[in-house]
Specification:
Layout lengths: L4 E4 L1 H15 L3 H17 L8 E2 L3 H5 L2 E6 L2 E8 L2 E9 L4 H21 L1
Parallel strand pairs: 1-5
Antiparallel strand pairs: 2-3, 3-4, 4-5
Helix pairs in contact: 1-2
C-alpha cells in the first residue's frame, strides 16, 4: 500500500496553535488531547487519504478540498499527487466558504507580491 506524505500548511499550523492556546487557558489537559487527536487523524490520511468527505460547498469541492472531522473541529485538506496538504483547521461552526475565499485572497496576494518583486 502506497503511503502519502501529510503536510500542514503554515495557515493550518497557525490555526492549530490558536485553538490549543484558547483551550489551554481553561484546560491544558484537554488542549493536549485535542492537539494529539487532530495530529493522529491527520497522520492517518497518509494511508487513507480519501477517508474525509468532499466539502459540501461547490467551489471548494471543485478545487478538490475534503474535510476531516475531529469534533468539534474540521481540517480542510487537498490531495495533490502523493501529498495530503492540511490547509486549515477550524471550528465546525466556522463559515468555511468565507474561509475559502480568504484562502484564495491570501494565495492571490502572495502570488502578486512575488510577481512584483
Amino acid at each position: 500500500m502506497e503511503k502519502y506524505e501529510v503536510r500542514f500548511l503554515q495557515e493550518a499550523l497557525d490555526d492549530l496553535e490558536e485553538i490549543i492556546i484558547y483551550i489551554a487557558q481553561n484546560n491544558p489537559t484537554t488542549a493536549l488531547r485535542v492537539h494529539d487527536e487532530i495530529m493522529e487523524k491527520a497522520d492517518a490520511l497518509s494511508v487513507f487519504p480519501r477517508r474525509g468527505r468532499p466539502v459540501p460547498d461547490a467551489k471548494m469541492r471543485k478545487a478538490g478540498y475534503r474535510t476531516l472531522l475531529v469534533k468539534p473541529y474540521i481540517a480542510f485538506y487537498r490531495i495533490i499527487d502523493h501529498n495530503v496538504f492540511i490547509c486549515r483547521v477550524a471550528h465546525g461552526t466556522t463559515n468555511y466558504p468565507l474561509l475559502y475565499d480568504k484562502m484564495l485572497q491570501s494565495a492571490n496576494d502572495t502570488s502578486n507580491t512575488q510577481a512584483g518583486e
